């Protein structure tokens, strides 16, 4: 995608521009339009009802954008957005983990530029900068195309569905997810595990112990005082 805002990026030798919110505190209209446009393109391609990457949300966040441009540095080929999130995640053993991992929040390559290795190039750059492996990064509401990408390039496919719609692959729980710190200023290694308590939905019914006859639960037939005493209840005299 050609856009005048590309000239305000500062791509490195890999043609990747790393953009932080601090770098766009005094933006121009072209840069604002660029971020809004790539976010809109990503959401349309994923069929999302709302745009998840906008300039206003990005500029007030602690996320990072990795924007890949072409060799002429005039066209955007794709982008990746990452950032920390406070999550409650369930593992396969019924334990809930509270943590603040770095997450993959948006991932997009323009359709005309797909199947050229650009997606893998951006992800590899992110992993290298963070010193992480892909299985250590939860993904926010990934599309079917994103899931296929993760399976093809990283062998990641099995996961436990989460209430928050993040995808955490099974290999996440086998990795050293508690000890990484992508930023000195972020508390990303916070982790707390809470075991799921089994709730007893039906309380145990108390056992009734018989104190008299063995069949104490059987209904008893009411008797008049006269019959109990062997008297005629009409004349109150003994039966003949």
UniProtKB/TrEMBL annotation:
Q: Name one GO cellular component term.
A: microtubule
| Catalyzed chemical reaction(s) | L-lysyl-[alpha-tubulin] + acetyl-CoA = N(6)-acetyl-L-lysyl-[alpha-tubulin] + CoA + H(+)
Check the record and name the InterPro entries matching this protein: Acyl_CoA_acyltransferase, Atat, GNAT_ATAT
**An annotated Gene Ontology molecular function:** tubulin N-acetyltransferase activity
Thylakoid in keyword set: no
Recorded protein name is Alpha-tubulin N-acetyltransferase
Belongs to which family? Answer: Belongs to the acetyltransferase ATAT1 family.
- Enzyme class, top EC level, equals transferase
To which species is this protein native?
A: Tritrichomonas foetus
Q: Which UniProt keywords apply?
A: Acyltransferase, Transferase
Gene Ontology biological-process annotations: regulation of microtubule cytoskeleton organization
Q: What does this protein do?
A: Specifically acetylates 'Lys-40' in alpha-tubulin on the lumenal side of microtubules. Promotes microtubule destabilization and accelerates microtubule dynamics; this activity may be independent of acetylation activity. Acetylates alpha-tubulin with a slow enzymatic rate, due to a catalytic site that is not optimized for acetyl transfer. Enters the microtubule through each end and diffuses quickly throughout the lumen of microtubules.
**Which EC number(s) does UniProt give?**
2.3.1.108
Q: Where is this site: Crucial for catalytic activity?
A: 46
Binding sites annotated in the UniProt record for acetyl-CoA: 107-120
> Region Disordered: what ranges?
197-240
The residue ranges of the N-acetyltransferase domain are 1-173
